[in-house]
TrEMBL record:
Pfam families, per the entry: GMC_oxred_C, GMC_oxred_N
InterPro entries assigned: FAD/NAD-bd_sf, GMC_OxRdtase_N, GMC_OxRtase_C
Organism field: Bradyrhizobium australiense
Domain Glucose-methanol-choline oxidoreductase C-terminal per the UniProt entry, residue ranges: 398-516
Keyword list, A-Z: FAD, Flavoprotein, Oxidoreductase
The protein's name in its UniProt record: GMC family oxidoreductase
């Protein structure tokens, strides 16, 4: 048997890395287990000319396509939006676009402001110091002072507007709509040992330059130097409990496939909004027959994805294509509720610079705007390097029928039941997407775009996995309390996106990490009476 540890963290991605780094100063024995391994930037797709081809194979964002040994299959047949993630040290921060908004203050008060969903048990102001600390650790580039976004203080200047930015900005100015250079975690200057962006290639699936912040190169080196232990290629099967109903440790499979037990005084789950409910639901016992921490019956329920409505077209002027971070501007013009639009809550807009040549060819052929035959090359030259995109990232309200359960048949390579996704897009979200497409078309037409195409929703758009172990003060209506501790198991904590009460209309990574730092801070403040 392994020696007991003080704190065991499951998952080495965005939230697991942040909580490990923050708790390291306590000098407790902290161990993190991750089912993947350390990444090798020398093997990233952007080191070769075939980087786009790899995006369709072993560097796909979908674990079902990628199928690496560290991945687990996901049955998402009953969902129009497919789950995408990455398993390894750094988690999905290895693959993300580095787009870096925060949830807005209004997102924490949806019930009070708009009569929908529930209010969070914490507010935006509570998280501000942790947002700021996380921005410093991850290394954010941006322009402070956006009038429609929370105030930020990025340590680096914003991404250059490039070729695409002015085209979008001028169109937005003609319409009289808000736009602003977006915060990103792509370095615009040498920062904390990371080299600046040199536009090596598209920021997904991974950045060989190291300019894009992923937690394997930001939080983890510092956490390990501070004494945190990280074991890779260790897949956790279940969390065990003792006769008092406390978490006693985990059963996992090591890199050789050998079953191990790791005892721990405290267990922290950081496995994302699909992996966390999967683990809890698989951790059944006589005391917890419906899964661990599930007295509310809400583990796995209220899954929120963010449906994306995408529209794009082609302009005569050259655009950035794949030669820059993909999202350079955002708009919050339609972020908050305006009932005259026909729906409640709202969406953010992300402007996309373009696409690489292979993606352009494949997508345009599928859309029927790139012909075969004698006209193929002429049309391709018209399309490639001339694309402008608009994506509406729509707030997904929590609904219990959108859920993660254990698949009765599908299993991973260790025989652990795979997650099953049952998800439908609400009428409110459909109306929101239609509104976003209409506004996107206006923007593109003002910019002079033609050959306009849509994807609504983006089918491989399940990047944001939220809400399946929600936070709240009432144990009957939530899984964890206002500082991430399980209502049912006093030494069990959750720090990933599954604790979200609402989803907002922005990418969640910066908020996920701020919450992880906040939970760690609460644990340190309450250390003496953690289990009371």
């Amino acid at each position: 048997m392994n020696d007991p540890v003080d704190v065991l963290i499951i998952g080495a991605g965005a939230s697991g890395a942040a909580v490990a780094w923050s708790l390291a100063e306590t000098k407790m024995h902290i161990l993190c287990l991750d089912q993947g391994g350390w990444m090798k930037p020398s093997e990233y797709p952007s080191t070769g000319r075939d980087w786009e081809a790899k995006f369709y194979g072993d560097w796909s964002t979908s674990p079902n396509v990628r199928g690496r040994p560290e991945d687990y299959p996901i049955n998402d047949d009953n969902s129009p939006i497919k789950v995408v993630n990455f398993n390894g040290v750094g988690g999905s921060t290895v693959m993300y676009t580095a787009h870096w908004p925060r949830l807005h203050p209004s997102d924490f008060k949806a019930k009070t402001l708009d009569g929908v969903a529930d209010d969070w048990p914490i507010d935006y102001d509570t998280l501000v110091p942790f947002f700021e600390e996380n921005d410093r650790m991850m290394g954010v580039s941006g322009l402070s002072g956006d009038p429609l976004s929370p105030l930020t203080h990025p340590p680096m200047p914003p991404q250059p507007l490039g070729l695409s930015g002015p085209l979008i900005g001028k169109a937005m100015n003609k319409l009289g709509w808000h736009w602003w250079p977006s915060d990103t975690t792509v370095a615009t200057m040498d920062y904390e040992g990371r080299a600046r962006c040199i536009n090596l290639g598209h920021c997904t699936p991974a950045c060989a330059q190291g300019a894009k912040a992923s937690t394997d190169i930001t939080y983890w080196p510092q956490a390990i130097r501070a004494g945190v232990e990280l074991k890779t290629n260790c897949r956790v099967r279940e969390i065990l409990t003792d006769e008092h109903g406390m978490a006693s440790g985990v059963v996992y499979y090591d890199k050789d496939g050998v079953e191990q037990f790791q005892p721990a005084e405290v267990v922290i789950i950081a496995c994302n909004g699909v992996g966390t409910p999967r683990l809890l639901l698989n951790s059944v016992s006589g005391r917890f027959p419906n899964g661990l921490a599930n007295s509310s019956g809400l583990v796995g329920k209220n899954l929120m994805f963010h449906p994306y409505a995408q529209i794009y077209g082609y302009v005569k002027e050259p655009t950035d294509s794949n030669r820059a971070p993909p999202t350079c501007l955002w708009s919050k013009e339609f972020y908050d509720t305006d009932l005259s639009r026909g729906f409640v809550r709202g969406y953010g807009i992300q402007f996309v610079r373009g696409a690489g040549p292979v993606f352009e060819a494949v997508a345009s052929e599928q859309k029927g705007i790139l012909p075969w035959g004698a006209d193929h090359h002429r049309v391709f030259r018209k399309l490639h390097g001339h694309r402008l995109g608009v994506s509406a990232i729509c707030e997904d309200l929590p609904e219990e029928h959108n859920r993660v359960t254990l698949d009765p048949v599908l299993k991973d390579s260790h025989g652990i039941p795979a997650p099953r996704i049952d998800y439908t897009i609400s009428e409110n979200s459909w109306k929101m997407m239609e509104h976003g497409l209409a506004r996107g078309r206006e923007i593109l037409e003002v910019a002079g775009a033609t050959d306009i195409c849509t994807n609504s929703p983006i089918p491989w758009g399940g990047w944001h996995l939220l809400g399946t172990a929600r936070m709240g003060t009432d144990p009957a209506c939530s899984v964890v309390n206002e500082w991430g501790r399980s209502h049912d198991v006093k030494n069990l904590f959750i720090v990933d996106g599954s604790v979200f009460v609402t989803s907002g209309g922005v990418n969640p990574t910066s908020t996920i990490q701020a919450i992880a730092l906040y939970v760690a801070d609460q644990m340190k403040q309450r250390l003496a009476n953690l289990f009371d």
